[in-house]
């Protein structure tokens, strides 16, 4: 019954145990759901609070219940498991943005670094090259802000978004009937891409999904995720993000290469253009960063640099 009472609080957004106790006393539907008769006493709010903080905090009962609902949906042919869509949304923490401490924490080496080093060594062996010398590990640190009100949350600082202490809820939805198949919560300072592959593998193992494709936003466009999807033979549809160039630099997409004149043109705006003469022949615009010299440009663009 105490577990069902927590369910009522979560579903109807009742954050106060006292308010939840009063609601159960007055609401007949709540009593029916809990199996209480009209004259049965309702547990005290202190009992509800202690139960919330201690009884289920270190258990996996919520995850098991969630998985059971997904399995029932699969039995009713409501979940296909072929195409999954994933995104995260921030949940504002009940914490003051101005009350925090600064702490130095070690930068954790992500798992894909080991996979990358292994792939490099295999490639060198296949090409008859000697293995690279092992480098000494450098323990790098970074400074983070830790909330004194809620130390478990994280400070989210993203472009065009308000800086705040929050959590990130990573949700995965099945495309067949838009049923959520996975929810995972991390502090707000954890990047979207960090828990993705492990949560994807968990769904495949737990529910037996045969995932053919996934859809992700631009926050998941990282090399580890692209390689992870390729290794799993999953087709990834990931949005592309065009980052703003640094002030004073021109982005590469503004340059076009003319093979006939062997030069590069950059259209700054309608009335302003620049012509660059490469030192060597360039077949790929990605190589234009190596060496170019201005041949003809307007006087007010002499100081422009190439990104």
- From the 3D structure, determine the CATH topology of the largest domain: Nucleotidyltransferase, domain 5
Shape field = elongated
Give the CATH class of the largest domain. Alpha Beta
- Individual helix count: 8
Write down the Rg. Answer: 28 Å
Oligomer: single chain
Q: Report the sheet with the most strands, covering strand number, pairing sense and barrel closure.
A: 6 strands, mixed
Helical amount: 25-40%
Could you tell me the number of beta strands?
A: 14
End-to-end gap: 63 Å
Determine the structural class based on helices, strands and strand pairing: alpha+beta
Order of secondary-structure elements: HHHHHEEHEEEEHEHEEEEEEE
The number of domains:
3
Q: Could you report the average pLDDT, rounded to the nearest whole number?
A: 80
Polypeptide structure, described:
It contains eight helices and 14 strands. With 307 residues, the chain is α+β, with helices and mostly antiparallel strands. It has three domains: 2-59, no CATH class; 83-238, Nucleotidyltransferase, domain 5 (2-Layer Sandwich), CATH 3.30.420; 249-306, no CATH class. Strands 1, 4, 5, 6, 7 and 8 form a six-stranded mixed sheet that branches. A four-stranded antiparallel sheet has the order 10-11-12-13, with no helix packed on it. It has a two-stranded antiparallel ribbon with strand order 2-3. Helix 8 (223-231) links the parallel strand 7 and strand 8 (235-238). Helix 2 (17-26) packs across helix 3 (28-34) and helix 2 crosses helix 4 (45-55). It is elongated and about 90 Å long.
């Amino acid at each position: 019954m105490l577990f069902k009472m927590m369910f009522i609080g979560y579903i109807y957004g009742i954050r106060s145990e006292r308010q939840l106790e009063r609601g159960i006393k007055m609401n007949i539907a709540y009593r029916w759901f809990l199996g209480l008769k009209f004259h049965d006493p309702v547990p005290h709010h202190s009992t509800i609070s202690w139960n919330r903080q201690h009884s289920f905090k270190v258990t996996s009962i919520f995850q098991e219940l969630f998985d059971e609902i997904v399995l029932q949906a699969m039995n009713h042919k409501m979940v296909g498991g072929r195409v999954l869509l994933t995104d995260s949304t921030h949940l504002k923490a009940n914490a003051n943005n101005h009350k925090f401490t600064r702490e130095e924490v070690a930068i954790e080496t992500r798992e894909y670094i080991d996979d990358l080093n292994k792939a490099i060594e295999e490639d060198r062996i296949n090409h008859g090259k000697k293995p690279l010398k092992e480098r000494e590990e450098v323990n790098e640190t970074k400074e983070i802000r830790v909330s004194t009100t809620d130390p478990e949350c994280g400070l989210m600082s993203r472009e065009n978004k308000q800086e705040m202490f929050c959590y990130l809820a990573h949700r995965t939805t099945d495309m067949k009937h838009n049923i959520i198949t996975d929810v995972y919560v991390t502090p707000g300072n954890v990047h979207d891409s960090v828990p993705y592959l492990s949560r994807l593998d968990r769904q495949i193992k737990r529910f037996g999904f045969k995932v053919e494709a996934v859809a992700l936003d631009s926050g998941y466009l990282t090399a580890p995720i692209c390689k992870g999807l390729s290794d799993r033979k999953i087709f990834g549809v990931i949005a592309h993000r065009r980052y703003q160039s640094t002030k004073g630099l021109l982005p590469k997409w503004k340059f076009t290469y003319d093979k006939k004149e062997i030069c590069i043109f950059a259209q700054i705006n309608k009335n302003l253009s620049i012509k660059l003469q490469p030192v060597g022949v360039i077949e790929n615009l990605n190589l234009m960063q190596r060496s170019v010299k201005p041949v003809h440009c307007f006087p007010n663009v002499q100081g422009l640099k190439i990104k």
